[in-house]
Design a protein that fits this description.
75% of the residues lie in helices and 0% in strands. Helix 4 packs antiparallel against helix 5. The radius of gyration is 18 Å and the shape is globular. The protein starts with a helix and ends with a helix.
Length: 255
């Protein structure tokens, strides 16, 4: 009975972890962009609306992770650290959104909030990588989940940019970054699988396909067909999220 319940809940827990990772990755990119563009004049001010939408999406994805994160029962210290990073990330997200709506007289508050949000999101993604890993010793779980979180966050950000960019989006500009993050995630996954059957284990080829080859092909179509670029980037994001979910299901999700 217990095993049946665990199998039934596994996809939900894996989905919660994948969404939390993507939300953390999106928060990292938004924090960096807010800090870099702070105080800039001209058309860059129009990006505030895009950043607010991104913060709302990141906050929603982090909230969706709450049930599984709270129920995470692996040995200390990773669940506690993940919950602390999750709480800080949520507070920093709300703080950044408020500072975007009501800019403070001292810009330093926005920079501080962006720094806290970025660090908390990076810590959360790293802690999630310890799900199913040993509580001590080195593993590739943390860097792998960090790379996948940054890839998922970038994919979501590109959807927002393609829909709300104030002007014509430079379609080809994101391709190198997307390819680099995809290659990093794929390389870390392959390294982690090396002593565990590699690609001979069922389903792992699909994970790499969804995380790398399919998104790259879809991104290339966005470059070749700029009029429907938003649809191509949406499919890129869905493919990456599906790959993150598939990887978490194969890994066993949260116990």
């Amino acid at each position: 009975m217990t095993a049946a319940v665990h199998i039934h809940r596994l996809p939900l827990r894996a989905a919660s972890q994948a969404l939390a990772g993507a939300g953390a990755g999106l928060l990292v990119w938004l924090s960096v962009s807010i800090a870099l563009l702070l105080g800039r004049a001209g058309p860059l001010r129009e990006l505030a609306s895009l950043q607010l939408r991104g913060l709302a999406l990141a906050g929603l994805l982090l909230l969706l992770a709450a049930p599984a994160l709270i129920a995470w029962r692996e040995p200390a210290p990773w669940p506690g650290r993940a919950r602390l990073a999750w709480g800080l990330a949520l507070v920093a997200t709300l703080s950044l959104a408020g500072l975007q709506l009501w800019p403070p007289a001292v810009p330093g508050w926005t920079t501080l909030s962006a720094a806290i949000a970025c660090l908390a999101a990076l810590a959360l993604a790293s802690c999630l990588g310890q799900a199913g890993q040993s509580a001590d010793g080195l593993s590739l779980g943390a860097p792998t989940q960090l790379a996948l979180a940054l890839l998922g966050g970038m994919a979501l950000l590109l959807v927002l940019v393609s829909l709300h960019w104030p002007g014509t989006m430079p379609v080809g500009a994101p391709l190198p970054s997307l390819a680099l993050l995809g290659a990093a995630g794929a390389g870390l996954l392959l390294a982690g699988w090396w002593n565990d059957g590699g690609l001979r284990r069922s389903g792992r080829g699909w994970t790499l396909l969804l995380l790398t080859l399919l998104p790259w092909g879809l991104a290339l179509s966005a470059h070749l067909l700029p009029k429907i670029a938003w649809l191509a980037w949406l499919l890129v994001a869905l493919s990456v999220l599906a790959g993150m979910l598939h990887e978490r299901i194969l890994a066993g999700g949260w116990r």
